[in-house]
UniProtKB/TrEMBL annotation:
Alphabetical list of Gene3D superfamilies matching this protein: Spore Coat Polysaccharide Biosynthesis Protein SpsA, Chain A
Naturally occurring in which organism (per UniProt): Flavobacterium sediminis
Sequence intervals crossing the membrane: none
The protein's name in its UniProt record: Glycosyltransferase 2-like domain-containing protein
Molecular function via GO: hexosyltransferase activity
Pfam families: Glycos_transf_2
Domain of life: Bacteria
InterPro entries reported in the protein's UniProt record: Glyco_trans_2-like, Nucleotide-diphossugar_trans
Glycosyltransferase 2-like domain span: 5-166
């Protein structure tokens, strides 16, 4: 069995994917220890051709082509095809820190983790650092709930090693064709996990492109983001209601996640400059479903302030939206 499967979805990433794959090959692992599963999600450009030309007949690289299923669907294909003890999800424009995988795998194996989180930083198109995220469990192996309540985790699925059998046994796959698939996936994964460990080492750089949904001006994509957040809110609410919500630590985990989703939903409505009647109608719909979560503090300070100022008094929406 391979120690690691690196799953890389490919869609219209000809300019980045070679660097991503090369960073895996220069990560410090022997070729016999890992596999790279490239999932061609019906890419319209020459990404796959470039991979084949740059890494001809490379025994570590497997290319799987499929009809387009989106990022989540491509990752699911990779999970099902993988043979590694641990899985690492990378986006095609991510780059690993040289030599880091050997160290991370040793830690994951020695601690017998189901999820190992490592540090990451975001960079712009010129390579300038925009943000850096680092966490540590201080040498302790925790449940996913305990880890989140004491340390938190980065919503990304690309700064973690996941034990393959843990994902398969708990049927942990990504939702297909939605935005914020990482948020939804990690909510379920950490809820199920019994062995989580974190180290502060920076293991990857995430490229922040102009096509990010948070900066994209495409109206259709922005409206889809709102609907996807609403869908994830509904799924998370259902999981909370059918789980062990009576336990205080579980209650805190879900209440914070759900309050974050509600705040994010209404924040996007404001950014999209939706009329107040639409916003008011959304509030009433969520209230009728018991899903208007606004009473629990959110760890992210700006979202918590938004919760307190806007969601606690939705009529302030008219005032604040005029400044956007």
């Amino acid at each position: 069995m391979k120690k690691l499967s690196v799953i890389i979805p490919v869609y219209n990433v000809e300019a980045y994917v070679e660097k991503c794959i090369r960073s895996v090959k220069e990560s410090g692992l022997e070729e016999s220890q890992y596999e790279i599963i490239v999932v061609d999600d019906e890419s319209p450009d020459k990404s796959v051709e470039r991979i084949r030309n740059t890494f001809p007949n490379d025994p570590a690289i497997t290319i799987i082509s499929q009809k387009n299923k989106g990022l989540g669907g491509a990752r699911n294909t990779g999970i099902k095809a993988s043979q590694g003890n641990y899985l690492l999800f990378l986006d095609s424009d991510d780059v690993l820190t040289p030599g880091v995988l050997q160290e991370l795998l040793l830690i994951a194996e020695s601690q017998e983790t189901q999820i190992l989180e490592f540090g990451a930083k975001g960079v712009d198109m010129q390579g300038k650092e925009i943000y850096s995220v680092q966490s540590t469990s201080d040498g302790n192996v925790l449940s996913g709930i305990q880890y989140y309540n004491t340390t938190r985790y980065m919503n990304s699925a690309c700064n973690k090693l996941y034990k393959r059998t843990f994902l398969l046994e708990n049927e942990l796959f990504f939702l297909e064709r939605i935005f914020i698939e990482d948020f939804e996936f990690n909510t379920r994964a950490f809820y199920k996990a019994a062995k989580v460990y974190a180290v502060p080492q920076i293991g990857a750089c995430f490229l922040q492109t102009e096509n990010s949904i948070t900066r994209n001006s495409n109206k259709e994509k922005k409206q889809k983001m709102v609907q996807d957040i609403k869908q994830v809110l509904d799924i998370t609410h259902t999981l909370y209601q059918t789980g062990n919500g009576e336990l205080s630590e579980v209650k805190n985990f879900f209440e914070e996640r759900l309050n974050f989703l509600v705040a994010t939903l209404f924040y996007h409505l404001m950014k999209n400059k939706e009329p107040f009647e639409i916003v008011k109608g959304m509030k009433e719909e969520l209230q009728n479903k018991g899903m208007y979560y606004v009473d629990h503090p959110i760890y992210q300070k700006n979202k918590n302030l938004f919760r307190l100022l806007i969601l606690k008094n939705i009529y302030f929406y008219k005032i604040f939206s005029s400044f956007l």
